[in-house]
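User: Structure please.
Assistant: Input sequence and predicted structure:
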Amino acid sequence: PKTPKPQNPIFSGCKFIIIKMENETELLEKEIIEEVSTRRDNIKKERNLILAALIVCNFAAQSLYMNICALLPQHVEDDFPNLTSLDVGLLFAVYPIAFLFTAPFIGANAQEIGRKNTVLCGVIMMTLATLMFGMGSFCNHELSFFTISFIARLL
């Protein structure tokens, strides 16, 4: 009968180390895949949250603009009869003109500023402009009303 050859202890030790390294590599690969998957999910959630915030902000801005379009001409006609329809038209036109000139700048620098900061600054500016525009209605002088309203619409 043949006797089994004794295994070389160095060879069996190396084989054990190689198997152990393969197992550790597989565990590391699984951990990395899980981490990447978790980060990807977090990024998707953040993007969806930012998109929802932008949609709400855009809805609020457009609703505000439509209310101004409906109410401002009658308010000016009743309370400031010396302001002309050209003045009211300028108040309407200044917002889209300011948006036309600032949107490319903001879009180009949004990555540097940060998406959240860009949205937050936009919401704060829109809130301040709305408050300022509303406070302009308390002015009794036509020039002060027009100036405050113009600056508020410019923001």
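The mean pLDDT is 79.
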